[in-house]
Write a structure and sequence with these properties.
- It is built from 5 helices and 13 strands.
- It is of the alpha+beta class.
- Strands 1, 2, 3, 4, 5, 6, 7, 8, 9, 10, 11, 12 and 13 form a 13-stranded antiparallel sheet that branches.
- Strand 11 and strand 12 form a beta hairpin.
- Helix 4 packs antiparallel against helix 5.
- The relative contact order is 0.09.
Length: 220
């Protein structure tokens, strides 16, 4: 009997760790955490797939094909992933440790408007005004403390294709492609390709590091 119970527990553990199960039990909690970032955001959430991470004592959640809605605009979300602390869950405390959002291909101006909800920094306002076209695929990672508050160490990365920027009438920046990584203190851009007045330019690396109220710019 003991051997049978051990085998049964092993089978259940392997099943929950690899295949998992679908549930809507966590939907309300995920939505409430997104609303902590911006209360006016609405989330169309499908069933969530849950798998067990026994080594780290947590449950991994994933949902596919979600729409993020705000101010009558829709942001297409490819996946939302989150992690739940089993210990906190058993103690009936706040359980989410992080949420990761991966977008579909989006119009850049729509995504920048969403970023301004997270961080209404003047640079995002300026970017929204001067960027005329382009598409982006991006990942956003948010972490939470034990009280459920967002920790200021977010990670935002992705790639931009076919961008267009207008600074002044005499300069035309088209066919802009690059890869980016952004966090609280550093803005990093790599493999930047730009057509400036029909001249092709390649910038392998460009980094802006925040120093109090200033930015230190470096790169190649």
């Amino acid at each position: 009997i003991l051997l049978s119970l051990i085998v049964l527990l092993l089978v259940i553990t392997v099943y929950l760790s690899t295949i998992g199960f679908k549930t809507d039990k966590f939907n309300t909690k995920i939505i409430s955490q997104i609303k902590k970032v911006e209360p006016n955001v609405e989330l169309r959430l499908n069933d969530v797939s849950a798998t067990l991470d026994l080594f780290n004592l947590r449950i991994n959640l994933k949902t596919i094909g979600t729409d993020l809605i705000y101010k009558n605009k829709i942001i297409g979300i490819e996946t939302i992933k989150s992690k739940i602390s089993i210990k906190s869950l058993l103690n009936k405390k706040f359980s989410f440790t992080e949420i990761s959002i991966s977008t579909k291909s989006l119009i850049i101006k729509d995504l920048i408007a969403f970023i301004r909800l997270l961080n209404n920094d003047p640079k995002f306002f300026i970017a929204e005004k001067i960027i005329k076209k382009g598409y982006v695929v991006a990942d956003l990672k948010l972490e939470f403390d034990e009280s459920g508050n967002i920790i200021k160490n977010y990670e935002f990365n992705g790639l931009v294709k076919d961008g267009k920027i207008n600074f002044f009438k005499r300069f035309s920046l088209n066919k802009i492609d690059f890869v980016f990584e952004i966090n609280e203190n550093i803005l990093s851009f790599n493999d930047i390709k730009i057509s400036l007045n029909d001249n092709n330019i390649l910038i392998p690396e460009l980094v802006a590091s925040k120093r109090e109220n200033e930015y230190l710019i470096s790169g190649n």
